[in-house]
Write a structure and sequence with these properties.
Elements (H helix, E strand, L loop, with lengths): L5 E5 L4 H12 L3 E6 L4 H9 L2 E4 L11 E4 L8 H8 L3 E4 H9 L3 E6 L4 H14 L5 E8 L4 E4 L5 E5 L14 E4 L7 H4 L2 H13 L6 E5 L3 H8 L5 E5 L7 E8 L7 E7 L2 E8 L4 H16 L4 H10 L8 E5 L4 E5 L4 H12 L5 E6 L4 H12 L7 E4 L15 H10 L5 E3 L5 H8 L4 E6 L5 H15 L6 E7 L11 E7 L3 H14 L3 E4 L5 E2 L5 E7 L8 E4 L2 E5 L4 H10 L15 H6 L3 E2 L2 E2 L4 E8 L4 E5 L15 E8 L6 H18 L21 H7 L6 E2 L2 E3 L7 E3 L5 H19 L8 E2 L1
Parallel strand pairs: 1-2, 1-4, 2-3, 4-5, 6-9, 6-10, 7-9, 10-11, 11-12, 12-13, 17-21, 18-19, 18-21, 19-20, 23-26, 24-26, 25-37
Antiparallel strand pairs: 7-8, 13-14, 14-15, 16-17, 22-23, 27-28, 28-33, 29-30, 31-32, 31-33, 34-35, 35-36
Helix pairs in contact: 1-2, 1-4, 5-9, 5-10, 9-10, 12-13, 14-15
This protein binds flavin-adenine dinucleotide.
Length: about 750
């Protein structure tokens, strides 16, 4: 199918593996990968062009030139062992990442806690300095748009995993060791083995290489004292550390954040103010600052970057916040992380801290049971739930209740066990105004934070007069009949109501998706986060004639516009006949056919911007182009049309002609989104012809099919998924590129 090498990633839905997938994609590899079930990460990769295989089967690896596996993929895994048997090139994730690092100046960040945050901060500092680094982190960093950012610059900043000693596969130029604790004992067995691995890591530096280590950490200091490579210590102790912080203020002026003064060798560098909270994040910032200074970035630039850093996904991720409640999702699952995170949360000064904890893995719970006992003292109330197994077999006598017992025995006054399934309703019913609810754990407990936040958000739309639906399936609102639930589906009652919806979305930081008739949309199976706004209420469907100008609300059906024009002696919009959609969607897409498009008929549009202000744009102010109005700054609420006069007979004849043409050429029996691809900019050439000549007419994947009647239509034969459609899109693009060297561009909006 393609000349590019194929790389297969086992466990591609994981945070580390997906970062690699993105890097391979960026280098033009044909990327495929498997995982047990579909998740958001895999959907994103699919959109980027990767092939997603669900389930693990030997056959998945055949045809791959390179197979990459992560630490959680055992030797006996069917795909790993098949690759070995077939003699395919098989490498660990860290070896793959090490290959990307070759020829780059590599900054590797390791340690038991704080790796993701510190790695992201170093990346931010270099970006702020205009260096365009590549950054690979073990979490989702919103600023980078994910877990990997691929830059053109010389520097590569990576999070190096110490858990199975795979960090020894790297040969960094600069290292950061944030802290060292007794963890991952299943791999290391003894503390000496852990320290030995860190020592070897430090020795991976070139002889002139330098590393930064946290001077507040006993074991880091111990390694630094061995002088294997020169160490720069950072921390709170000015006697011991070269880079240090003083005057730490948590939540300065009541704002979520932390500020401190930064120093280097007795010289004051200046003040840093961050949006993250907690002293542990001051240490992470000092490490990143030290790396930045070492790489020639000025203090001011580094401080600016640190001030902008908003955190990574699941690292004190605030899912909901108002005067009454705050709901936070955090990845902390080790006792030290839990203790620090709760301490930082306490600094926010809410009345009560309600912690929810899901222990991670049976082995870890067993090994750390005693330490868990004392790590929740900052929480006023604690709920512990079942252990998240992460593929492990249960250990008799180790369960969520065991952790509960350990915490109670350590003296906690209010701790109870709640089964995972009941968590969200139990917590919602126990919440009181003034609560900060913090959900802790590395497993699926983050869904609980989302559920509680979503219930609270539903309340925020209580003033909306129009229709507000939660978890509304998008398959009900798309012509393809595909799409999972959207958090909120809102049909505002009128302009005032729409303004209010936008205000709430801004305040609650909810993403807005606009829907017209849904005839040009492909919605994902997993659904969408945020709010779908549809102007379907009567106030948006008014159509009237004044001074020879037809004015139509954005929700008016296109067919109604044609009929209204006809009744009032106007023509010119016959080409719209059979193009399903409402006025807002038709204008937004600059819909057209038979060589005509709607921009020719538009006189002006009324737009409501995201702030709720309305303004009128005259036709010349709208950057219309082929199948786009180019309007991004808001919602079309009303459109004025200037139509030519026409006799009934002329209009009716044209309408009949166009209607018959559509019946003859298009598949109108099955759900579709009309033409899937824009026509290429080649005279006399259509996408449908190219797909047809590439031999794909009738091609079926799952329950989606390239129509037999019109090769530019992808139809839903019944029960098709968005993945089926995406796979056909990919096939068509590849086949047309290969055969005609033409890049097909998707016309349908993929949400
Ligand atoms: C059988 C069939 C045949 C088709 N034939 C044609 C054809 O010949 N020519 C053609 O051009 N298209 C065709 N289409 C595609 C589709 O009809 C058009 O793209 C139409 O413009 C979609 O309108 P809609 O209201 O359904 O918009 P939607 O599909 O709901 O939305 C399309 C885009 O418009 C945006 N949008 C919607 N409402 C607003 C608003 N009020 N303000 C700002 N943005 C908004 C949406 O966010 C989205 O990005 C066909 C579709 C089908 C199913």
């Amino acid at each position: 199918m393609t000349n590019s090498p194929t790389v297969h990633l086992i466990g591609m839905g994981g945070i580390g593996m997906s970062a690699l997938a993105k890097m391979y994609l960026s280098m033009g590899y044909w990327v495929q990968g498997s995982d047990v079930k579909k998740n958001e990460i895999l959907c994103e990769l699919e959109k980027m062009g990767a092939k997603v295989l669900i389930g693990h089967e030997e056959g998945h690896v055949s045809g791959a030139n390179l197979v990459v596996y992560s630490s959680s993929i055992a030797r006996e895994h069917p795909e790993r062992s098949a690759a070995l048997r077939q003699g395919l090139r098989l490498i660990h994730r860290s070896e793959a990442l090490a290959q990307f690092c070759r020829g780059k100046y590599t900054v590797a960040v390791t340690g038991t806690h704080g790796k993701t945050t510190t790695t992201a901060m170093v990346g931010m500092i270099l970006k702020e300095a205009g260096r365009d680094p590549s950054v690979v982190v073990g979490g989702v960093v919103h600023f980078f748009g994910g877990n990997a950012c691929i830059g053109e610059g010389h520097e590569m900043v990576i999070e190096a995993d110490e858990s199975d000693a795979s960090f020894l596969n790297f040969s960094p130029n600069l290292e950061i060791v944030t802290n060292i604790e007794e963890e991952h004992m299943d791999h290391y067995k003894t503390l000496d083995a852990i320290l030995g691995a860190y020592e070897s890591f430090v020795q991976k530096l070139p002889p002139e290489g330098v590393w930064l280590g946290c001077g507040d950490d006993f074991f880091v200091r111990q390694i630094a004292a061995r002088n294997l490579r020169p160490a720069i210590l950072y921390g709170f102790n000015s006697e011991l550390c070269q880079i240090y912080a003083t005057d730490v203020v948590e939540c300065p002026q009541g704002e979520r954040g932390v500020s401190f003064n930064a120093w280097q060798n007795g010289h004051k560098l200046g003040a840093v103010r961050m949006r993250l909270i907690g002293r542990h994040n001051v240490l992470n910032a000092l490490a990143a600052l030290g790396a930045g200074l070492r790489l020639g970035v000025s203090f001011q630039t580094a401080a600016t970057a640190l001030g902008k850093y908003q955190g990574a996904g699941r690292r004190f991720d605030v899912c909901y916040e108002d005067e009454r409640f705050m709901v936070v999702d955090d990845y902390a699952h080790h006792p030290t992380e839990i203790e620090q995170t709760l301490l930082a949360a306490k600094g926010l000064g809410r009345k009560r801290i309600v912690a929810v904890f899901q222990p991670h893995r049976y082995t870890r719970t067993q090994a750390l049971l005693e330490k868990f006992g004392g790590s929740f003292s900052s929480a006023d109330k604690l709920f512990v739930t079942d252990i998240y197994a992460a593929g492990e077999a249960p250990i008799p006598g180790i369960a969520g209740q065991t952790v509960c017992e350990a915490v109670r025995e350590a003296g906690h006054p209010d701790v109870s066990f709640v089964e995972r399934f009941h968590l969200a309703p139990v917590i919602s019913s126990e919440m009181k105004p003034g609560d900060l609810v913090i959900v802790l754990g590395a497993g699926d407990v983050s869904q609980v934070a989302a559920q509680i936040a979503s219930a609270l958000k539903a309340q925020v739309f209580s003033e909306i007069r129009g229709k507000v639906l939660q978890k509304e399936p998008l398959s009900r609102h798309t012509s393809l009949k595909i799409g999972g639930p959207i958090d909120f589906w809102i049909e505002p009652e009128d302009w005032q109501d729409l303004r209010k919806v936008l205000e709430v979305c801004r305040k609650e930081n909810l993403k807005v998706h606009l829907f017209g008739g849904g005839n040009n949309l492909l919605a994902p199976e997993e659904g969408l986060k945020g709010v779908g706004i549809c102007l379907n209420a009567p106030a948006f469907r008014k159509i009237l004639l004044k001074d020879g100008v037809i004015s139509a609300g954005a929700g008016t059906a296109g067919s109604l516009l044609i009929q209204f024009a006809l009744e009032h002696g106007f023509g010119g919009c016959e080409f719209l006949s059979g193009i399903p959609g409402c006025v807002g969607g038709l204008v937004a897409m600059n819909a057209g056919s038979h060589g005509e498009s709607i921009d020719a008929l538009v006189r002006s549009v009324t737009l409501m911007d995201w702030e709720g202000h309305t303004r009128i744009l005259l036709k010349d102010q709208i950057p219309f182009s082929y199948r786009s109005s180019g309007i991004k700054e808001g919602i079309l609420v009303e459109v004025e049309f200037a139509l030519p006069k026409s006799t009934d007979a002329q209009t009716l004849q044209k309408l009949d002609e166009y209607h018959q043409y559509r019946q003859k050429t298009q598949d109108l029996q099955h759900p579709s989104a009309g033409c899937m691809f824009k026509n290429p900019n080649i005279p006399g050439c259509s996408s449908g012809q190219l797909i047809d000549q590439a031999g794909l007419k009738g091609k079926r994947i799952g329950n989606a099919q390239i129509s037999e009647k019109h090769a530019n239509f992808i139809i839903n034969l019944g029960g098709a998924s968005s993945q089926d459609v995406l796979a056909l899109i990919r096939e068509a693009k590849l086949a047309v590129k290969e055969k005609f060297d033409v890049d097909l561009e998707v016309e349908v909006k993929i949400l």
